[in-house]
Amino acid sequence: MREAVRRANIEPGHVQDVLIGNVLAELGFAKTGRMTLNHAGFPSTTTFHTVNRQCSSSLQAITHISHSIMVGQIDVGMAGGIESMSRNYGSRGVPQDVSPNLRDSHVKDARDCLMPMGTTSENVADRYGIGRKIQDEYGLESHRRASEAQRTGRFEQEIFPVTYEFKAAEGELVEGELGSDKITSVTVSKDDGIRHGLTLEKISSLKAVFKENGGSTAGNS
């Protein structure tokens, strides 16, 4: 948030409204997002809200803010998105408090809204005859492009390194070093999920996750 304002060469107080797309965070990121905005130096006069359009929430945020500017409601706005699958999906990815009338709906499309995306992936692959081999090849090519982009610095100008501190547990491995129950500083400046040098042989050896003898794996999904 601070870097976006700096790169735009404006002051935080110039931003009239902020909209962040989010799906899983507690209370839709409404309170922690407001806290983040104040923590980053924005005044309380800068309003804040969130939006949830699953799988494209940040794009919807940008759309809404641009519309607000176009119709003259605001002159300057900020939009973006934030998500943490590792922290939030397990407890909030699939609704638990669902009316029995909906959970057991006579309408299949309604019931299918609770279906995990991994299962949906397998169903779509079966319906359209998309085999494991082509999924692996497509996933490998996507990974190769990401690897090349990172190695050649294609997106460096779009990335702002973020440094944060946390207490690493005794024996926890952090950036190649073992933690010792002390405050550790870590800087995130790139996507650490890219596996450089990934091969078709390696990606083809991974087990299917959602269905026995299925096509969706941790490597091609």
Short description:
Helices cover 38% and strands 15% of the residues. It has 221 residues and is an alpha/beta fold.
Structure commentary:
The longest helix is centred in the middle third of the chain and has 20 residues, at about 130-150. The protein has helices at about 1-10, 30-40, 55-70, 85-90, 100-105, 110, 115-130, 130-150, 200-205, and strands at about 15-20, 45-50, 75-80, 160-170, 175, 175-180, 180-190. It folds into 3 domains: about 1-90, 3-Layer(aba) Sandwich (Peroxisomal Thiolase, Chain A, domain 1); about 95-125, no CATH class; about 130-205, no CATH class. The chain has about 220 residues and is of the alpha/beta class. The mean pLDDT is about 90. The strands form 3 sheets. A 3-stranded parallel beta sheet has the order 2-1-3, with helices on both faces.
